[in-house]
Inverse folding.
């Protein structure tokens, strides 16, 4: 998911590189907004345009328009330095400093703390963000977490550790007192930076006056990449973060004894997460969901309808008493000005209004507006290469008071009925561990036709709709189920059946049978005994159009999103039974709330960095071997780039395998390599391999790191462990 000691409160800055002066008119990346190729079927694009322009939203006039972005006012300098922590560890810092227009002008500070290597892995990503905000009068600060990137210190034992959060509190205190600071600080970030912004705010640093958290979670067990919906997930991120944690510090990439002790030889985090398979205080102590009263800092939240962290935005709107503003767009885990699918917006403009209000005291009306800006999806055919989402923006207050809940019941004819009628029945389903590959990562990314996955699920279709039906919220399902095995998971997908039979994914959710009564105290199922399970599907907006049908698909696998349960089995679902139901939050369209948001400005690029074209493009391959009854899903990504005289080439591969008849026999194999060539001609290669296999009782994990300098192997370290799988 991404500081020198003060004596006692004195900021010490030591130059790591020459200061760079950058004018306000820094160059724009050629074709930054136009280079993205068109993709997707012409029919789907035409249908999306029709829904927006002449169909579902005809006559719905825009009543509200967000203010345009503030004009850039400042030139800026880039500096590098250190912040010393109370234990003597120095954290590496990059400053983007506005050039003041008078000798006494000072600026609020915006800080982001990540483990994602600001001097190489995130170098190209940071520049367009930091340069945009600094030109509008903010002193931007980027800090590498201790033990990562260019910072000193030992790698912490986990994400969002006490060491990290304590350092962040100290960093904020020092930045508030640094030269050129007004004494007020905002913390912000996407994903990891959103997570730790929330958690640091829970510690109430006096100088921290507001935060911005994009794609962040309030529940580290249930809503993160390790236990998705409470089920074990070995995400691609597990390889990525454990690999990068073992890289030497840029820009020198020294492979000395400190590197081996603090990074290369540190135990990979994956093992820690596997040893904590049950929700408990290890997860909850830093999870806002169980301490809502601890967040008293004004918070701007950004979520995406295709992102794995969208539900926390709604929970925080419901439960946090501090001032909250939120935007939820059609995006996946991308910045909203540069996302696929769009439409994209200039989110940085709204962020500046937020920071101006809370950090500069501007009376700009940002807190007089509705709390939630929301994209309402019009509904469109499935398209895994979708570039644009049909729909409109709306300003809403949350909760939406005009919401009305409507209930449907699965019947014995695989329909969805408005009421229970007829004799109670039961539908059975054989567990197929390799099913669910149409949604392989999270409940995210545009997905293609779901019909193939529906063929290995129980499906129930509503009647053909005669008028549009809009939903906004978190759908609920009630399942009266049983299984012939003690461990079973259920996955439920809400889908839209088009008139031509193609099926679009709307949202989904999963639940562990063992966690049916308690996440804290899970207990296995009693085979053959019916039980009641309630599952909340992930937040969504969607409009089911006339001529379409509502569908729910119920299965016991979502591979490889979650690890397969170990036992071959058959499950059953009660039909014509009030204990099996689908509940949808229906919201009438309100013309008066339609909004227009500013289009994104072109991004600038770092002047000393470039992307290098390499072979072996990124890709996804799914293989179902019908005869062998196996399923394999393979991912590959490659990124090559240069920063000054340094060149970095990064290749990663992940392979997931499972067996329909012996689901306990499943495997993850991850392999990632960095090749780093310094300006002096020195070459370093680091490789990390994760081999994780399961049987019915345990996970067997072997993780190997290897370091080469030039052609010579310098060091290899292997960790091997057998970890009980418990309820997973």
């Amino acid at each position: 998911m991404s500081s020198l000691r003060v004596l006692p409160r004195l900021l010490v800055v030591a130059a790591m590189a020459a200061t760079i002066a950058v004018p306000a008119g820094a160059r724009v990346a050629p074709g930054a907004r136009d280079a993205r190729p068109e993709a997707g079927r012409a029919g789907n694009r035409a249908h999306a345009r029709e829904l927006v322009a002449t169909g579902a939203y005809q006559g719905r006039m825009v009543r509200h328009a967000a203010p345009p972005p503030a004009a850039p006012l400042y030139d800026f300098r880039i500096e590098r330095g250190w912040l010393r922590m109370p234990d003597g560890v120095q954290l590496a810092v990059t400053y983007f400093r506005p050039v003041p227009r008078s000798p006494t002008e000072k600026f609020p500070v915006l800080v982001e703390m990540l483990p994602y290597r600001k001097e190489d892995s995130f170098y190209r990503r940071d520049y367009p963000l930091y340069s945009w905000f600094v030109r509008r009068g903010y002193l931007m600060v980027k800090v590498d977490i201790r033990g990562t990137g260019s910072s000193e210190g030992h790698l912490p034992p986990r994400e969002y550790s006490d060491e990290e959060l304590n350092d962040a509190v100290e960093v904020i205190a020092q930045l508030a007192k640094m030269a050129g600071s007004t004494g007020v600080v905002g913390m912000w970030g996407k994903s990891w930076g959103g997570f730790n912004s929330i958690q640091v705010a829970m510690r109430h640093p006096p100088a921290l006056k507001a935060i911005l958290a994009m794609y962040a979670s309030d529940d580290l067990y249930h809503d993160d990449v390790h236990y998705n919906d409470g089920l074990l997930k070995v995400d691609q991120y597990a390889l990525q973060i454990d690999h990068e944690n073992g890289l030497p510090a840029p820009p020198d990439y020294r492979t000395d004894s400190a590197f081996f002790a603090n990074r290369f030889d540190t135990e990979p985090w994956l093992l820690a997460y596997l040893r904590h398979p049950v929700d408990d205080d290890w997860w909850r102590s830093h999870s806002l969901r169980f301490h809502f009263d601890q967040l008293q800092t004004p918070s701007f939240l950004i979520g995406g309808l295709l992102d794995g962290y969208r539900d926390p935005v709604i929970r925080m709107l419901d439960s946090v008493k501090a001032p909250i503003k939120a935007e939820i767009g059609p995006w996946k885990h991308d910045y909203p000005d540069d996302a696929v699918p769009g439409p994209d917006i200039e989110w940085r403009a709204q962020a500046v209004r937020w920071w101006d209000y809370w950090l500069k005291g501007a009376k700009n009306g940002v807190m007089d507006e509705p709390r939630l800006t929301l994209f309402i999806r019009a509904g469109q055919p499935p398209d895994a290469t979708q570039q644009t989402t049909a729909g409109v923006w709306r300003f809403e207050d949350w909760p939406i008071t005009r919401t009305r809940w409507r209930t449907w019941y699965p019947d014995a004819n695989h329909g969805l009925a408005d009421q229970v009628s007829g004799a109670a029945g039961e539908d059975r389903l054989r567990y197929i561990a390799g099913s669910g590959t149409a949604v392989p990562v999270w409940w995210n990314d545009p997905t293609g036709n779901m019909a193939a996955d529906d063929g290995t699920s129980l499906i129930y279709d509503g009647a053909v709709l005669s008028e549009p039906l809009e939903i906004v919220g978190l759908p609920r399902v009630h399942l009266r189920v049983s299984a012939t095995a003690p461990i079973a998971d259920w996955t439920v997908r809400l889908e839209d059946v088009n008139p031509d039979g193609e099926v679009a994914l709307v949202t989904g959710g999963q639940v562990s049978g063992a966690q049916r009564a308690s996440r804290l105290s899970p207990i296995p199922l009693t085979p053959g005994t019916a039980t009641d399970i309630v599952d909340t599907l992930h937040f969504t907006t969607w409009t089911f159009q006339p001529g379409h049908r509502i569908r729910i698909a119920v299965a016991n696998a979502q591979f490889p999103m979650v690890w397969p349960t170990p036992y071959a089995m058959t499950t059953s679902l009660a039909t014509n039974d009030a204990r099996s139901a689908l509940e949808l939050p229906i919201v009438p369209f309100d013309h008066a709330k339609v909004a227009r948001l500013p289009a994104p400005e072109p991004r600038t690029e770092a002047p000393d960095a470039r992307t290098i074209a390499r072979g072996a493009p990124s890709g996804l391959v799914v293989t179902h071997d019908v005869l062998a009854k196996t399923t394999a899903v393979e991912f590959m990504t490659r990124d090559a780039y240069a920063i000054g005289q340094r060149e970095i080439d990064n290749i990663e591969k992940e392979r997931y395998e499972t067996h329909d008849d012996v689901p306990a026999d499943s495997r993850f194999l991850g392999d990632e390599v960095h090749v780093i060539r310094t300006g002096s001609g020195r070459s370093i290669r680091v490789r990390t391999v994760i081999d994780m296999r399961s049987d019915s009782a345990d996970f067997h994990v072997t993780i190997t790191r290897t370091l080469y300098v030039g052609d010579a192997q310098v060091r290899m370290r292997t960790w091997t462990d057998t970890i009980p799988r418990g309820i997973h």
User: Anything to note?
Assistant: The first strand starts at residue 20 and ends at 22. Residues 663 and 716 are 32 Å apart (CA to CA).
